[in-house]
Design brief:
470 residues, alpha/beta, Carbamate kinase, binds aspartic acid, binds magnesium ion
Length: 470
Amino acid sequence: MGSDILVYKFGEKCVATADGIDRIVDVVRDTVGSGWKLVVVVAAIEGVTDSLLTLCRYSELGIEGKIEEYLDLIRRTHSSLVEKALRRVESRESVSKRIDKVLEDIKSTLYTCLKLREVTPRARDYIASTGEVLSSIIVASRLREEGVEAVDLAGWESGIVTDSRFGDATPLIENSRVEVSRRLKPLVDRGTIPVIAGFSGATVDGSITTLGRGGADYTATILAACLDADEVCLWTHVDGIMTADPKIEGKARTIDRLSYEEAVELARFSVKGLHPRVFDPVISKGIPVRIRNLFDKSRQGTLIGPGKPEIDRRIVKTVVLIRDVALLAVEGTGMVGLPGVAAKVFEALGRAGVNILMISQSSSEANITMVVDRSSLDKGVSALESTVTGSLVSSIYYEPDVCIVSVIGAGMRGTPGVAARVFKAVASKGINVRMIAQGSSEYNISFVVKEEDGEEAVRAIHDEFRLYEA
Ligand code: ASP
Ligand code: MG
């Protein structure tokens, strides 16, 4: 460490308005003024990635009219920002030209897909990656207007090399390291600020990949690891990670500090919009990650970083609700004592592309209960019906209307009685618990309740552990 480099990532709401972009300019100036070298990563404007993915769906379905409509929507979103956020006519004109070019390029790909009625994973990633490209062009241009030397770069241009799992690619860290030192480091060293389109990279042979939804944060931590940066700051529109969702629990507070282990538990469920692998690149290097509110800099935000989490006096740090999940169970006495059944079940679900969030098996071995994304429940049921029902599994059981409550905190490790307190609090509200799992890290206890009981369970636990106290 000690490279004097910081990586700042600006989220989808930060880049969405002229006010947000003014604030970006301010923090960039302040930071550079204090002598730091800076790498900027941007997200796409809020909603744009979704629109791009919708466009892909319309080309698959052959709905040409919608393609024009959505492209126009994306164009207007950006041109209105260009009008408001850029000051000079020349920069507006050149940025608008570049935006039109990007949209023309994806349009021709979309029409090819439309003809074929197929969007390949490569085409989808290329199209989805352009939201960030558009915002990076605008942000870099505004910085240049302010006299800051800045250049916009696509993810692959910054040197991020990934495997070829399109849609959910993982960086090849060694390759990325080499490429980032070759492409990005010289710019940073001479004081230019690269404004990098988050969310994407490219395979070794140059196909554009995306890193999975919410992947712009991941871009920031990958680049920080490759550059041995001193710190990553994820600038967003909220104060940081909270003890509970403030929409559920009015007394929720911002958490000052989380260990990597705790943050990983949070990210595992993609809650708080965190990418499940976002902390992977920085953990071994001990690079701290801060989450801060661009719209209220008086707040210190949440610092996620190295250090012994056990030192913290708080047993439980946060309680989260994971919605839109379903319970799926296989039952049958044929499973008892027979090795390999679990493997068959998970293989069938894996092949069908069903993501499993929780697993538990009773010690009688007569059932395996899982929690899956609700949107993939039907797929999961039919995958199981066609593979394992019969002699092994006598019935498949499911409940679509459930949610997961997850209680997270490193202090739970080795502290007896935490589970008892959790379940007593929940039981005192008359809530029935359908399934329980504790990760072996002991940083997390998760359980499943009916959807309608989820919010009350969160509040009960928040109260029991007095998470409202500073
Ligand atoms: N724009 C991408 C998404 O919506 C990446 C990100 O926002 O982090 O998933
Ligand atoms: Mg996002």
